[in-house]
Design a protein that fits this description.
- The protein is mostly helical.
- It folds into 3 domains: 69 residues, no CATH class; 57 residues, no CATH class; 44 residues, no CATH class.
- It contains 6 helices and 4 strands, in the order H-H-H-H-H-E-E-E-E-H.
- The strands form 2 sheets. The protein has a two-stranded antiparallel sheet with strand order 1-4. Strands 2-3 form a two-stranded antiparallel sheet.
- Helix 3 runs parallel beside helix 5.
- The chain is elongated, with a radius of gyration of 30 Å.
- The N and C termini lie far apart (100 Å).
- The relative contact order is 0.06.
- Bound molecules: zinc ion.
């Protein structure tokens, strides 16, 4: 009986040993791989801070696609980088994820919140633009004839030359930055305006 136990032990031990070491080896390799991915992430963040957002995104995607569990910081960095790439929906998605993950205690809480609000605004603007684009297809495809006067009443201030912003502490009035002092645009300015190419005057 003793002998049998001994033989069983001898037979089992090497495989036990190798099973254990292969598990250790696997863990070690995984740690190395994660460390390598974290270095890639660091380099991606450096690229982002350098304004190289496309390259940063490629590296962040590589990390996202290869790491077992996504570190919460990466959700922030990816959301932030997406914002600078003008991928606003993507940005909202990842920044929200970061805020959900870390709450108010996150290292990047205020920056994430600030960027999220901006990205949400941009998403809303994009939605508005989609509507305007659909409406503008006809007007933007043609040079609009403004008639013999060559002038058009400013559609921004409706010819009043004054813009009114309603606020909770009363209205704020400012001079319309698009038209002349009589509330008119030249035909050229008007055509630029409907194409979204007329820049407001600096005030
Ligand atoms: Zn005006």
């Amino acid at each position: 009986m003793k002998q049998l136990i001994f033989i069983t032990f001898i037979l089992a031990f090497p495989s036990l040993l190798s099973a254990q070491s292969s598990e250790e080896y696997r863990l070690l390799m995984e740690q190395r791989r994660r460390a390598e991915l974290m270095r890639t992430l660091d380099s991606a963040v450096a690229l982002m801070e350098d304004g190289k957002h496309e390259a940063a995104e490629a590296r962040m995607l590589y990390v996202l696609n290869n790491i077992r569990s996504v570190p919460s910081d990466l959700t922030f960095y990816f959301g932030k980088n997406s914002f600078y790439l003008k991928k606003y929906k993507q940005s909202v998605d990842w920044l929200s994820k970061y805020l959900q993950l870390k709450g108010t205690s996150g290292q990047f809480y205020s920056e994430a919140l600030d960027l999220l609000r901006k990205a949400e605004n941009e998403v809303r603007n994009e939605q508005k633009k989609e509507v305007e684009k659909a409406k503008q297809i006809l007007s933007t495809s043609y040079e609009i004839d403004c008639g013999p006067s060559g002038k058009v009443m400013c559609p921004i201030c409706k010819g009043t030359t004054v813009l009114v912003k309603r606020g909770s502490f009363g209205n704020h009035y400012s001079t319309c930055p698009y038209c002349d002092k009589h509330g008119f645009l030249t035909c050229d300015e008007y055509n630029k305006l409907i194409r979204g190419e007329l820049n407001p005057r600096e005030q």
